[in-house]
Amino acid sequence: MDKYINAPLSKEDAAGLRAGDYVYINGTIYTARDAAHKRMYEALERGEKLPMDMESNIIYYMGPSPAREGRPIGSAGPTTASRMDKYAPSLLDLGLRGMIGKGKRSQAVIDGITRNGAVYFAAVGGAGAILSKAIKSSEVIAYDDLGTEAIRKLEVENFPVVVVIDSLGNNLYETAVEQYRK
Amino acid sequence: MRTISCEEITAAVKEMCYEACHYLTPDMKEALVKARETEESPVGKQILSQLEENLEIAGADQIPICQDTGMAVLFVKIGQDVHIEGGLLEDAINKGVSLGYTDGYLRKSVVKCPIDRVNTKDNTPAVIHYQVVAGDKLHLTLAPKGFGSENMSRVFMLKPADGVEGIKNAILTAVKDAGPNACPPMVVGVGVGGTFEKCAIMAKEALTRPVNQHSDIPYIKDMEIELLEKINASGIGPGGLGGTTTAFAVNINTYPTHIAGLPVAVNICCHVNRHSVREL
């Protein structure tokens, strides 16, 4: 089912999403991948504040290619989410409402999703050119020295994703594959 | 003896980096179109259409097909009657990679040391495999390799008693474990035989063989066909969201091995199976 949601994502909107829904995201999302997650995690361990508030926000696991002049961003598709599994449960407990990536998640992340009413979305991996068209602006807000791995604030319009794990723990990767196994 | 200048090599490599990250080879495009026509899952079909559109946008607007423009892997076949002039071949190649990734707005994804992980900021060094061959030509194949799929690749040191079934199981296990992480539809490069490192390099090189071209060895060709059918019956599908297109091809290369061993390497590539070829 096609749905349109706003980001930041309210708890109510997140609860209404089901695994398999085709969703278009509008609003503000943030990027972070391996190195930024490691830094955020270490900041939390030291009791420091994070560079962005997690509450109701969506993190896109993505490190773009450089933008050409006059464009907001370069190629911008999802990276493999499981590399962030070590860090995601802590962020979910701080109110992170959505994650966009590709690939499987650990049981600890799935538990974090259901415990907090969050959602895991997949964007189409390897479709960075087409996905970049849905990103209207991009601004580095933290960890600038990490280059492509810096935390970016993105404004997106109808950014296309699929709900893979919903707030009830339904997992599209398991159910959909079963359907076409011969 | 024929002389080839380092400048010429650098210029070719620079161009190849750019080309490979923006345009796929015709066999990959054909495979994508064919898969979109035969895919049984509606979601799978939609994803394959998106990938086709993604390729068009990449070419028309000069946006890399995928943001992970990879680590540059090169297969260099150097004729033994070639003389390289003006510096070291390796430096000439790395200069080409540096220029290609910097001037070409490609992502710099290489860290200098795997432990402290500081980015080299120009995507160097490349991983270069050299082979000395007959003749006076320099043959370059550049394959920028993304790590979503690279991370799902495996080496299995099987026993001779494991036989053909063992090889097939190893390949199917690697593909099943890779699932949605490797950005299916995948291309599966396999190296069977040789030693620990030889099978891995063969698996990587197998990815540069066109997806519509089988092994010359009849029983290997049969195995490629059988495994592709089995992989496409796994249900994984485009994007791992279910469907009948999980791989475009299984390319198997072989090499003599030891009486005590049966090494099998499975190098998985995503649907952005990039390579560019030049002969100087």
Describe this structure in words.
The complex is a heterodimer of chains A (182) and B (280). With 182 residues, chain A is α/β, with parallel strands linked by helices. Chain A is built from six helices and seven strands; from the N terminus they run βαβαβαβαβαββα. Helix content of chain A is 26%, strand content 27%. A five-stranded mixed β-barrel of chain A has the order 2-3-4-5-7. Chain B has 280 residues and is α/β, with parallel strands linked by helices. Chain B contains eight helices and ten strands. The two termini of chain B are 14 Å apart. Chain B has helices at 6-22, 26-38, 42-61, 89-103, 147-150, 163-178, 196-206, 218-232; strands spanning 2-5, 71-79, 82-85, 127-133, 138-145, 154-158, 186-194, 247-257, 262-269, 276-279. Chain B has a four-stranded mixed beta sheet with strand order 4-2-5-10. In chain B, strands 6-9-7-8 form a four-stranded mixed beta sheet. A two-stranded parallel sheet of chain B has the order 1-3. At the A-B interface, helix 5, strand 7 and helix 6 of A face helix 3 of B.
